[in-house]
Recover the amino acids of this structure.
């Protein structure tokens, strides 16, 4: 049965009662284009995270990185100079916690001067490319909601001095959103409420956008994927690239040492022998507090959404199934009376694949320790934890003028 024929789909039903026949034709067409099997994930939402057996995974720690700095730097720089490293900026999220209606990267993180988040990220990248003497191709993922705004922001600011031909945009897919009973929300009487499908589909979206040819033409062997919101992020970091290659791994993940056993971060470990990320709420107290002989936590390193993946491996796994996470979010919608509602609290489900599930598809992964105060300043909220306020403090602490 078509979604608009189902009795329980009250938002669609009421909109169709309000619409004329042309509008209904438009709405039906849009609804027919959607793969509704995605809604079955609601029943499976408790089991999507059914897990295997976890075990600790040793990281390459700062002391070792310091001791092998020259070696890692040399290997990493060689790869960058040979054009083997590309970067992927994940900027398709909606930043609902920040409550912005523009792309998150356009936020002004400056205090005394204007400094945009995108701008700071480009400066971070340019620190590496200046030293390397070659640009690193940067692929930017947006959603179709923020594509125009993102692209024109870069245009208006002349790509912050970066060579334009090394910045490529691509768009991620959209999926429908619904209320807690699986009733599909509409964003207008002729449009289903669609939202970006999470940050896990980025490579597939790159392929869909025809970028495989570009990767091959440029002979890219490694992709460094990172989130838009960490303004202290090092991009295409030669030490990280060099360490991952030196260890012979097909992926790497930047990690920070946990501040306390109960800190709310996803921890890099193994699951049934493969690299994996265990969420803080999935850890037993015993796991969270287990210590090594030297007193360090066994599950002691949290991920910061900065990964390095072998391009070849990404191609191999591109067709594999990824778990779909059902996440509670604030979804603007048209209610049964035809009024626009902008909820203050989460009011339904979005469906997302997550980049962290990609790590589990790798044979191996190198957890690479970075110093939190130097490389991790995420902006998720305006104030409080992981906020614009805390990021500004951290930037200042790193001697960056803002
Ligand atoms: P978050 O999980 O913080 O999500 O994204 P968000 O949508 O930006 O923010 P909230 O939860 O609504 O407040 C982590 C990273 O993944 C990207 C984001 O842009 C950010 O860099 N992302 C997230 C995507 O690229 N696409 C998505 O569909 C979701």
């Amino acid at each position: 049965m078509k979604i608009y024929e189902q009795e329980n789909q009250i938002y669609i039903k009421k909109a169709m009662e309000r619409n004329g026949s042309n509008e209904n034709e438009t709405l039906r067409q849009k609804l027919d284009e959607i793969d509704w099997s995605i809604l079955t994930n609601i029943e499976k939402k408790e089991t999507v995270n059914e897990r295997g057996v976890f075990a600790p995974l040793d990281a390459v720690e700062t002391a070792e990185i310091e001791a092998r700095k020259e070696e890692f730097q040399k290997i990493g720089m060689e790869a960058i100079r040979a054009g083997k490293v590309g970067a992927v900026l994940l900027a398709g999220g909606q930043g609902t916690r920040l409550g912005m209606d523009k792309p998150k990267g356009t936020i002004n993180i400056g205090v005394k001067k204007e400094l945009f988040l995108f701008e700071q990220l480009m400066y971070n990248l340019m620190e590496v490319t200046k030293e390397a003497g070659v640009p690193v191709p940067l692929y930017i993922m947006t959603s179709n909601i923020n594509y125009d705004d993102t692209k024109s922001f870069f245009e208006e600011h002349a790509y912050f001095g970066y060579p334009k031909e090394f910045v490529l945009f691509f768009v991620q897919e959209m999926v429908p959103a619904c209320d807690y009973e699986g009733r599909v929300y509409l964003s207008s009487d002729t449009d289903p409420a669609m939202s970006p499908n999470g940050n896990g589909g980025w490579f597939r979206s790159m392929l869909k956008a025809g970028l495989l040819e570009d990767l091959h033409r440029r002979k890219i062997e490694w992709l460094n994927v990172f989130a838009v919101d960490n303004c202290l992020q090092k991009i295409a970091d030669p030490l990280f690239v060099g360490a991952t290659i030196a260890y012979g791994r097909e992926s790497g993940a930047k990690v920070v040492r946990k501040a306390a056993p109960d800190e709310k971060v996803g921890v890099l470990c193994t699951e049934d022998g493969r690299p994996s990320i265990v969420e803080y709420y999935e850890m037993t107290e015993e796991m969270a507090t287990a210590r090594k002989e030297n007193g360090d936590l066994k599950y002691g390193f949290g991920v910061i959404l900065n990964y390095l993946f072998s391009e070849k491996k990404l191609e191999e796994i591109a067709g594999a199934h990824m778990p779909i996470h059902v996440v509670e979010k604030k979804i603007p919608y048209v209610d049964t009376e035809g009024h626009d509602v902008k909820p203050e609290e989460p009011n339904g489900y979005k469906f997302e694949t997550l980049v962290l599930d990609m790590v589990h598809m790798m044979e191996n992964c190198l957890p690479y320790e970075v110093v939190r105060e130097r490389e991790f300043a995420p902006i998720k909220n305006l104030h409080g934890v992981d906020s614009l306020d805390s990021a500004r403090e951290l930037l200042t602490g790193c001697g960056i003028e803002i």
Notes: Residues 3-47+66-251+306-354+377-397 form a domain with the Spore Coat Polysaccharide Biosynthesis Protein SpsA; Chain A fold (CATH 3.90.550.10).
